[in-house]
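Write out this protein's structure.
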Amino acid sequence: MAASNAGFDTPESHPKDLLRFMTAGSVDDGKSTLIGRLLHDAKALMDDHIDALARTAARRGLKDLDLSHVTDGLQGEREQGITIDVAYRSFETARRRFIIADTPGHEQYTRNMVTGATNADVAVVLVDACKYWLPQSRRHACLADTVGIRQLVVAVNKMDLIGYCEAAFAHIRDEFLDFASRLHFARVTFIPMSALKGDMVVERGGNLPWYEGPTLLEALEQADIPGAVGGAHGAPFRFPVQWVSRPGAPGRAARRGYMGRVASGGVAVGDEVMVLPSGRRTHVEEIDTHDGVLARTQAPQSVTLYLEDDVDVARGDMIVAAPSPPAVTKAFAATVCWLSSEPMSLRRRRYLIKHGTKTVSALFSRPHYRLNIATLERDTGVATLAMNDIGRVTVHVQDPLPWDTYIANRATGSFIVIDALTHDTVGAGLIEGSADAPEALAS
């Protein structure tokens, strides 16, 4: 583990890559202020938004803007029970574009954090310098690790309240490094900061001369964007078929097109592909889009594929790169985060698995273990998974599914669990590999 100045640029100047990161923190760690400071100092707030903050500060007799109110609107929606449970904000600097997934920190919202984390490249976990490590901070780091995030930024906030003490920061850092040694992060960056004063968020400030590492924004600008492993572009070609069309244009009346969004990788005209689960091989004859014909397509484009041979392809099938197909089985091992207030049922309830564009009936084994995300211990002998529990199970599905492990390909290594009776989403799963055996399966 290894431990820029902000500015705007126009999108037309040069292409910029996109980094998705999530933020998590316990109550009163200062997460709202940090996000507000980051957006304000990176010049990512509109003038009318800043004017509104200034008017609010003036009414309250404050000399400075209260940047915690930047996210007030979205927090208000959460408190009213509206379906927005993860707040997304975007901004850009001269070097990179960013999407922030602001996740709630309470334990009862574990599922919301999982939602934000599954699409993130970096996790930013806040720690209150006055409180040191709380159980919830460990939970946040463990969840980020569980969903495959390999870059962690530990933002030690409120350094101004402890006199910018280097020894206190070092104690927090050393304590977490001991915990993190049992996780799988490739890079952990510790940053002392004061979101309230602006130290080490975008600007360095003048209160932390002993710290020589990056600011938060610099750390985000320098972070790796996964490509070779788990990234949509670096992974092999995967194309879940959303719809089968029969265009009526001249010369195409009898030719089927297969519509969908490229989940990962890319494919070119002439490439050999395989249709799963049948295993039939053919070649790409044409790639069509609303804007015209392409010679090549890649994730995340939405296209229509035409194949050289008349093979049987249906909605829910997957067209993949023939040289590097995924596994195709009726059982696999998965880490499941249970989201429902009703515990996972092994016998009485019927569940569906939605994987890509395919939905199939599923049964779960008795959990092999439940992860204690405070201690990282594996609790064996549990009978089921309750709300916000994370555990490893074997999933048995009615029809064969093509899958990759989540660590290799997020797009085809994840699924959601649906209650067949209520149609509620009750779980989220990350495929770990081949089915564990033996196990007791529900009857």
